[in-house]
Amino acid sequence: xKRLLLAGMLVPAFLSYANAQEVIKVKKITxxxxxxxxxxxxxxxxxxxxxxxITRQIDLGEILSGLFPEVNHIRKGGTxxxxxxxxxxxxxxxxxxxxxxVYGACxxxxxxxxxxxxxxxVKEVKILEGPFDVSNQGSLAGVVNLVSxxxxxxxxxxxxxxxxxxxxxxxxxxxxxxxxxxxxxxGYSKQYSKPYESGEGKKITEYKHxxxxxxxxxxEIDHTAFNIDNVWTKVVxxxxxxNEIKINYAFDEAKDVLYPYLLMDAVYDRTHRIxxxxxxxxxxxxxxxxxxxxxHDMQDRWRKSSNMWVSRGxxxxxxxxxxTYGVKIEKGWKTGDIKLKTGIEAYKRNWRADNVVMNNDNRxxxxxxxxxxxxxxxxxxxxxxxxxxxxxxxVDSTKSEADKNALGTANRNIYNEYxxxxxxxxxxxxxxxxxxxxxxxxxxxxxxxxGFGHTVRVPDPEERFIAxxxxxxxxxxVGNPNLDPVKNNEMDAGxxxxxxxxxxxxxxxxxxxxxxxxxxxxxxxxxxxxAMSYQNIDAHIYGGDVTAIGMLTxxxxxxxxxxxxxxxxxxxxxxxxxxxxIPPLKTRLAIKYDNGTAFGMLETIYSAKxxxxxxxxxxxxxxxxxxxxxxxxxxxxxxxxxxxxxDNLFDKNYYTHLSYLRNPFSSGMKVPEPGRxxxxxxxxKF
Length: 686
Known about the structure:
Layout lengths: L1 H6 L16 E5 L2 H5 L12 E3 L9 H8 L3 E4 L7 E4 L8 E4 L2 E2 L20 E8 L12 E7 L5 E11 L3 E11 L3 E12 L32 E15 L2 E15 L7 E16 L4 E15 L16 E20 L2 E20 L2 E25 L2 E15 L12 H6 L6 E16 L5 E11 L3 H5 L1 E2 L7 E3 L7 E14 L2 E22 L6 E22 L4 E14 L16 E9 L3 E10 L17 E12 L3 E8 L29 E9 L1
Parallel strand pairs: 1-7, 5-8, 23-26
Antiparallel strand pairs: 1-2, 3-4, 5-6, 7-8, 9-10, 9-32, 10-11, 11-12, 12-13, 13-14, 14-15, 15-16, 16-17, 17-18, 18-19, 19-20, 20-21, 21-24, 22-23, 24-25, 25-26, 26-27, 27-28, 28-29, 29-30, 30-31, 31-32
């Protein structure tokens, strides 16, 4: 245990039983740490290193939301929780898998990127907050990289199982084998659940929507909430000390996934991912390439709205597909005492979604859009005594093109109806981004930093080109082909300070947003019908977070954290200046016990009331809540582990602020968080 204490204060007391447990490292990093890893060796830059088996492991978004107060999950149903970081969500943050881009096919974001990697495949999650990423195009306010496990030499594996309330079952097997030259890893996992119950004892399928037609049919109240299969394999080839090749393939299929948050549910979501990486160590060159394909089918077949459409089984349906492939070449350099990294990135993203509402043929709801990007970047750092100066610059050219011939009979003229001839379905954006950061090291663990970054995000295919014609007087949904890219000018400052067995770290930021993409209402050219669309506005988001941790005894540690952010509009068509979808103050307190064999944690999470809401979008206030979670685990020798957890110990009925989707896909129903959830984890290494 003393080794753990001396290693640093920001590593919770989970590590001592890691020999029987596979851990996910979750790291918050700065750009200078990425450029100069030798300057951070032995330092405690990990905000937390959690064992995923101590959670109920349903999805990674919810795990991250529980660990970091500045990360919040968007509750849509029992799984597939998207995330926001410091008030930024959707495409305003980059979420990558092994550095590759994986885009969901659903226009409703039923399948966010973070959903396409099961927790069992993850070795590490790297979170870089702020405008300090130049190695990936479009990282407006942060980047999250999910790093998958590599196979080990020798032979072995693990069997794992989790069971809990609401018929939740999760299990699988993973095995590896090989030598120092060739190593192979393969695994399979499955997750299944019925609809969970809230703190008031109601299934999420029993809650009523403002429109009764959107409620679940009585026969579907106990329908499967999700049924997910994941298969993965990875090969690492190291022919000698100078060369390394990695090849990875993964497939996941999610069936019968319920989303009370939305107007439809996912019948299936299928994803194929392939990526390869070659590293030439003597020249410090890394070449990576990837391809992935997502197919998504969502319908209202389990809702009352489909009752009048028995013959085809649904009133509305969207079938969507997305393909993404790309390549990146990186080279490390060293000029004197300056360390540099240069790179070229290119990718193509194709997205098509075909929709039908009643008899409206909305083929090309996402009209076969191609996004083609090529970019080049350079980043570097120099150490001057205790000061580390790091900077990066990047230039990109992005072409966005929609195919008007992909549109159906209902939406074929929708752009002309709302924009006349004042639009272009072929847009090219060229832009430069960059950052600079100064970090002063007081000693091996304590430091302070300040940085500035300018980042740009091109509008995504939905924001520019979505074309949904709704029946009768219901508002249409049409993109804005004339949108400009979002520009973010952001200042960040922070510190880390340690004394003895205690430490504290904090961060503040101010983000000035030009041409921020935001929802708006527009009228057609004749003034006879309205639509939801997008506009460019100016806005700003500011806030901060702080975390303190310490060892009280050799076996007891404590961690406390808090985060707050606020968003305001500065221009655009509005009467309410508050930005929507900004989480309120959130805190986390955890007291942990670990003697090397037995582990326990008492955790409390508090969220304040959110009254700063956007009434222009009918955003509603959210009450404060306070929940308590209890977790414990026991190592049986070096190869077995048994854990027991109770989330929401006192069975509170509560809602997160991001539990209710605003227009234009509003179902009108707030989705409560799960009530008391008891679960057990068992794993065995072989």
